[in-house]
Design a protein that fits this description.
The complex is a heterodimer.
Chain A: H1 19-48, E1 56-58, E2 64-66, E3 74-80, H2 87-102, E4 109-115, H3 123-131, E5 138-140, H4 144-153, E6 158-162, E7 170-175, E8 177-181, E9 187-192, H5 197-207
Parallel strand pairs in A: 3-4, 4-5
Antiparallel strand pairs in A: 1-2, 3-8, 6-7, 8-9
Helix pairs in contact in A: 2-5
Chain B: H1 2-16, E1 19-21, E2 24-32, E3 40-48, E4 53-59, E5 63-74, E6 77-82, E7 86-88, E8 94-96, E9 101-108, E10 117-124, E11 128-137, H2 149-155
Classes of the chains: A alpha/beta, B mainly beta.
C-alpha cells in the first residue's frame, strides 16, 4: 500500500500526491475495518447470546447440573414455580401435549422447567411436580443466587408478590415465555407460552428441522 | 382404556357437576391433580338466570383457603392477583378458565387425584351459597379433554 509506484497512471511528470497521503488513507481504512469488525463481532455475538448461557443448578435429585449436560439436544426452557395454580400447569401441559404431537421428533428435545421460587421448590417438590406432566420434563432448582444467575442469562424477570403476612403468602410474577435453544446451547427462538400443544409442536418441528 | 375413562367422564361430568340455586347455576366445575399441602385450582361456569349478582367468595373442605384470582400476562410477565368480587349477569355465562379467572386452593388437606371429586361452595351477594361438585383431571388438564367437540365426534360413532 505504501509503494509510490503508480501503475494506473504511470505518466511521467503527472501530478502525484505525496506518499504520506497513502499512509494516512491506509491507516484510516484499517481503523474503519477494525471498527466495523469489532461492531459485527460484539453486535452479532451479542444478538446470538442475548438469551441463554451457562447455568449451574440442581436437578430433582439434588445433584448439580450445568447447561453443558444438555448440549447435543434442543432445550425448551421455561421459568415458573410449582405454587402457581393456573399459568404454569397450563403451559407445562401444553409442552407435554407438544411432545406427544411431535412423536419421534420429540427425542431431539429436552423440556426444562426452572423454578423462580427456590425457597419452596426443593428438588423433591420439583420431582413430584414435573413427573405429573410428563416424565420427560426435567425440573431444576438451586440456591436463590443460582436461580438469579440463570434467570439473568435468560433475561427472565421474576419478583415476589406478597398476598399476606405468612411465609407462604406470596405468588411470583415471572416472564412466561418458552425458549428454544439449539444443540449447541445457543438461542434459536422464543415460543409463546399460551400456545396450544398442537401449535407448539408445529412451531418446534419447523425450528428443529 | 383412555376412551373408557373419557366415556365415563362424559356421562359423569354433566350428571354431578350441576348445582343450582336462586337463579345461579354452576356447571363443569373441574380441577387438576395436585399434591397435598400445595396449591390447587378450580375452574367452572356460572350462569345467572335471575337478577344480576356478584360472586364474592369461595371455600372448599379440601383446602385451608380458596381465593378468587385473575391471571394475566403483562408485557410477557405472568401475574396473578386477588379479585374481590366477580359480577354475574343474566344471559352472560361467566367462565373461570385457564389463563383467566380461577379459584386458587391453598393448603390442600389431601392430594387431588385424577377422577376424584370434591365440593366447592361459592358465595353470592344475593343468591347466597351454592355448592358444586368439582371433578379432578390430570395435572395441567384442560376442560377440552372430556365432553368437548374434539372428542364428541369419537363417541357418536
Amino acid at each position: 500500500m505504501s509503494s509510490t509506484s503508480d501503475p494506473a497512471t504511470g505518466r511521467p511528470g503527472g501530478a502525484r500526491p505525496p506518499a504520506w497521503i497513502f499512509g494516512v488513507i491506509g491507516l484510516l481504512i484499517a481503523l474503519l475495518l477494525l471498527g466495523t469488525g469489532a461492531f459485527i463481532w460484539l453486535g452479532g455475538g451479542g444478538t446470538a447470546s442475548l438469551v441463554g448461557g451457562p447455568f449451574v443448578l440442581e436437578d430433582s435429585n439434588g445433584k448439580q447440573v450445568t447447561d453443558r449436560a444438555f448440549l447435543g439436544k434442543y432445550m425448551l426452557v421455561y421459568f415458573g414455580y410449582t405454587y402457581c395454580p393456573d399459568v404454569c400447569p397450563t403451559t407445562l401441559n401444553d409442552v407435554a401435549d407438544a411432545l406427544d404431537h411431535l412423536g419421534p421428533e420429540a427425542a431431539k428435545l429436552q423440556p426444562i422447567f426452572i423454578t423462580v421460587d427456590p425457597k419452596r421448590d426443593t428438588p423433591a417438590v420439583m420431582k413430584q411436580y414435573t413427573a405429573a406432566f410428563t416424565p420427560r420434563l426435567i425440573g431444576l432448582t438451586g440456591t436463590p443466587e443460582q436461580i438469579a444467575d440463570a434467570a439473568k442469562e435468560y433475561r427472565v424477570y421474576y419478583a415476589e408478590h406478597r398476598t399476606g403476612p405468612g411465609p407462604d403468602d406470596y405468588s411470583m410474577d415471572h416472564s412466561s415465555i418458552l425458549y428454544l435453544m439449539g444443540p449447541d446451547g445457543k438461542f434459536i427462538a422464543p415460543i409463546r407460552a399460551d400456545e396450544s400443544g398442537a401449535q407448539m409442536a408445529t412451531d418446534l418441528a419447523k425450528l428443529m428441522s | 382404556m383412555r376412551h373408557l375413562v373419557l366415556g365415563t367422564m362424559l356421562f359423569a361430568v354433566p350428571a354431578i357437576a350441576l348445582a343450582q340455586q336462586n337463579g345461579i347455576q354452576i356447571e363443569n366445575a373441574w380441577s387438576r391433580a395436585a399434591m397435598a399441602g400445595r396449591t390447587g385450582v378450580v375452574y367452572l361456569t356460572i350462569t345467572d338466570t335471575g337478577a344480576p349478582d356478584r360472586l364474592t367468595a369461595a371455600s372448599s373442605p379440601v383446602a385451608s383457603k380458596a381465593d378468587l384470582h385473575e391471571s394475566f400476562t403483562d408485557n410477557g410477565v405472568a401475574k396473578m392477583r386477588d379479585v374481590t368480587t366477580l359480577p354475574v349477569e343474566p344471559g352472560k355465562p361467566l367462565t373461570l378458565s385457564p389463563d383467566g379467572y380461577h379459584i386458587m386452593l391453598t393448603g390442600l388437606k389431601q392430594p387431588l387425584k385424577q377422577g376424584d371429586t370434591f365440593p366447592v361452595t361459592l358465595s353470592f351477594a344475593k343468591a347466597g351459597q351454592v355448592t358444586a361438585t368439582v371433578t379432578v383431571q390430570k395435572a395441567g388438564g384442560s376442560m377440552s379433554m372430556p365432553g368437548m367437540p374434539m372428542h364428541g365426534g369419537d363417541t357418536t360413532k
